[in-house]
From TrEMBL:
Signal peptide interval: 1-20
SMART domains: PDZ
Protein name: Serine protease
Chain ranges of the PDZ domain: 256-348
MF (Gene Ontology): serine-type endopeptidase activity
Keywords: Hydrolase, Protease, Serine protease, Signal
GO biological process annotation, one example: proteolysis
UniProt keyword Protease present: yes
Length: 538
């Protein structure tokens, strides 16, 4: 049988195996994929299912991590989406990440309509789209009902479109159910593991999977060597849709604690745990988190969640799927505002706590930045940015050793900075000019303050540097030597204007104001036509 060299989940711009940590690794991995085509054409009885699939075409453009005022070259992605209501199409978040233009297209590419993102969750790797204005050809299509959870061994159909509109179907079986990070590393969700040989076709960045004529999930990765695919489970999709349809998307909830396994025998004896028991050690409780508000403390041992007992590795026994990690009990089927019971061991005694789940708060150091340009500030040639993992990864393959040590330390120990900052502002580089003589080689240094005031985020730094000190000299306090940078305010203002005259598009891009939970609640209530408690009291 002839073997084709084909990148499965990449069309026009390959992005590679979603098992990779980033889209760049994703691309490199899939460029080497060798697939064996086992094409199966679709019969008439399946035409109704096909009527629910559309091509999703996205123009993608990201920003340069090192020069955040510049955009990278645009790229195109093409995958498939599934119509789940007359105006709702679901696909993978990675498919539309950083999109500047989005369209939905018929299988034969004869009709198209512009689309927009209604809700997106990069952690769960799901996006809900809708047409802009007139739904056009979508109005004649039939939405698919979402399938009930499947079982291990069940057959699943995966769908693809050829360039000419011909539909290909691959039948695979569910080999296992696990948790997996299908896009952003460190964020694992309930996933079906399929076994089956995929086929070569266009528009295959992401694909729909069905079971018994109903939409089962979104296929996000394929390993050609093992013929293994990953499909986001329907429980996650249902939870995502329930949140997305209630007026404002809040995201999957979090508990807000760090855990440690209790497999070590000596550690278990120290904690007072039995030899055959389970439990997870609570190594940290995030302040103001649901766990903190419920009364959980560092040193507690988490024994059960909603009555499901945890073993010493953090697994519980799911009635249909077998052993799964405990985070499934938080993220699968639960939404913000739901209450869970936590059975803990403290000082040798069992206790039951009740926690109300909340939306995940943005981390001090974002792992990824999507759909928003990175903030920056240029003052007198000093380039300031907010630290993100994406910035550090721009140092290349060996970024963990090549990136500045102070920034790497901050990424690995964010708790050392959380109490005093909203983000970590750092001096990224220096653009040589008369205002920065002697500072040309500085970079990769965390900013602690400016003009005698602490700096909590880049917007605060911009405000502090906008005012001219009485002595005409700005001072910028750093975490590393030389400790303080002295910047002549008048000269730096002149340099700023010269940069603009020489073609620099802007001197700053500051983040939008982040809404507090109370503000989010008010907006959500107004969107639903309701009154908040504050409004009623007034």
């Amino acid at each position: 049988m002839k073997t084709l060299s084909y990148t499965l989940l990449a069309s026009l711009t390959a992005t590679g195996s979603l098992l990779a940590d980033t889209p760049e690794e994703h691309s490199a991995a899939l460029q080497k994929v060798q697939l064996t085509p086992t094409t199966e054409l679709v019969g008439e009885k399946e035409n109704q299912i096909l009527d629910s699939f559309v091509r999703v075409n996205a123009t993608i453009q990201t920003f340069n991590a090192g020069q955040p005022w510049q955009r990278n070259n645009p790229q195109r992605r093409s995958g498939l989406g599934t119509l789940i209501s007359p105006t709702e199409i679901i696909t993978a978040a990675e498919m539309v990440a950083n999109q500047t233009y989005l369209e939905l297209e018929s299988a034969d590419s004869s009709q198209s309509v512009q689309a927009k993102v209604v809700a997106i969750d990069y952690k769960a790797n799901l996006a809900l789209l809708s047409p802009v204005g007139d739904p056009g050809f979508l109005a004649k299509k039939t939405p698919l009902e979402i399938a009930k959870p499947a079982k291990i061994g069940d057959p699943v159909n995966v769908w693809q479109f050829e360039d000419n509109g011909t539909t290909l179907k691959t039948t695979a079986s569910i080999r296992a159910v696990d948790t997996s990070a299908t896009f952003l590393s460190g964020n694992s969700f309930l996933t079906y593991i399929l076994k089956g040989s995929m086929q070569s076709a266009s528009s295959s960045f992401t694909l729909p999977a069905t079971r018994n004529g109903k939409f089962l999930g979104v296929l996000t990765s394929y390993d050609s060597d093992d013929q293994i695919s990953e499909v986001i489970a329907p429980e996650i999709i249902e939870t995502f849709l329930r949140d997305a349809r209630d007026g404002i998307y809040e995201g999957f909830p979090t508990l807000g604690c760090a855990i440690q396994r209790t497999e070590d025998k000596s550690f278990r004896q120290y904690l007072g745990l039995s030899e055959d028991g389970g439990g997870l050690y609570i190594s940290r409780v995030k302040p103001d988190s649901p766990a903190d508000k419920a009364g959980m403390k560092k040193g507690d041992v988490l024994l059960a969640v909603d009555g499901s007992e945890l073993d010493r590795r953090g697994y519980f026994q799911h009635p249909d799927y077998g052993p799964l990690t405990w985070t499934v009990l938080i993220r699968s089927g639960k939404t913000v505002g739901d209450t869970i019971s936590l059975t803990i061991l403290r000082d040798g005694k069992e206790q039951t706590l009740s926690a109300t789940l909340e939306a995940t708060q943005p981390p001090l150091i974002p792992r990824h930045i999507n759909d928003s340009p990175p903030p920056f500030l240029i003052k007198g040639g000093l380039v300031f940015q907010e630290l993100s993992r994406e910035y550090l990864r721009a140092f290349g393959d060996n970024w963990t050793t090549r990136a500045p040590l102070p920034l790497m330390y901050a990424m690995e120990n964010p708790e050392d900075y959380e109490e005093e900052r909203n983000s970590i502002v750092f001096l990224a580089r220096v653009l040589p000019n008369p205002a920065t003589i002697g500072y040309d080689r500085l970079g990769g240094m965390i900013v602690n303050g400016a003009n005698g005031q602490p700096v909590k985020d880049i917007a605060e730094l911009a405000a502090l540097l906008e005012k001219t000190p009485a002595n005409g000299i700005h001072t910028i306090e750093l975490d590393e030597a030389p400790g303080v940078i002295y910047l002549d305010a008048e000269i730096s203002d002149q340099v700023d204007q010269q940069f603009l005259q020489q073609g620099l598009p802007t001197l700053s891009r500051l983040p939008e104001k982040k809404l507090s939970p109370a503000e989010v609640e008010t907006i959500a209530a107004e969107a639903l036509g309701e009154k908040t408690e504050t409004e009623e009291s007034e």
